[in-house]
Amino acid sequence: MPEALLLAAALLFSAGGIAWLALAMEVHWQQAHGSATGPGRRTATALRVLGSAALLASLVACLVADHATMAVLVWVMSLAASALLVALTLAWRPRWLAWLAPWARRA
Questions:
Q1: Does residue 103 belong to any structural domain of this protein?
Q2: DSSP class of 24
Q3: What is the DSSP string of 76-95?
Q4: Interval 36-59: pLDDT, tens
Q5: In whole angstroms, what is the distance from residue 11 CA to residue 15 CA?
C-alpha cells in the first residue's frame, strides 16, 4: 500500500478514535445527541474500546508507512490535528459526531 494512503488512513483512524473517546464523555454525548442524559455504561465502554482500537490502528498504519522514529512523530502530530478537529466540531457542529455511534439512538 502506498505511504500516502497509509498516512491518510492513519489520520482517519486518529480522528475517529479521538471522536469516539470524546463521545464516551457525558458532556460531549449530550452535545452530539441533544439529550439530557449521557451514554449508558455499555455504550460508553464500547466507545472507549472503539476509540482505543482506532488510535492503535492509527499507530500501526504510521509504523507500516515509515520507520519507527518518524512514524511516532507523525502519529503524535495526527493526534494533535485530530484533537483540534474534534474540538472545533464539538464547538460548531456537535451533531455531526452523532453518526459515529449509530447503534445508540437519541433518548
A1: no
A2: T
A3: HHHHHHHHHHHHHHHHH-GG
A4: 777 888 888 999 999 999 999 999
A5: 6
Task: Please say if the pLDDT value at position 79 is more than 90.
Answer: yes
Cell numbers describing residue 101: 455511534
Q: Could you tell me the residue range of the domain that residue 22 belongs to?
A: 3-97
In a domain, 107, yes or no: no
Look at the chain and report how many structural domains it folds into.
Answer: 1
Do residues 10 and 61 lie in contact, with contact meaning Cβ atoms separated by under 8 Å?
A: yes
Question: Which whole-number Å values give the CA distances from 51 to 6, 9, 14, 17, 57, in the listed order?
Answer: 18, 15, 8, 4, 10
Give the 3-state secondary structure of residue 34. coil
Cell of 22: 470524546
pLDDT at residue 32 above 50?
yes
Q: Is residue 102 part of a domain?
A: no
**Cβ of 6: how many Cβ atoms within 10 Å?**
18
- Residue 86, domain member (yes or no): yes
pTM summary value:
0.88
- Residue 1 confidence (pLDDT): 66
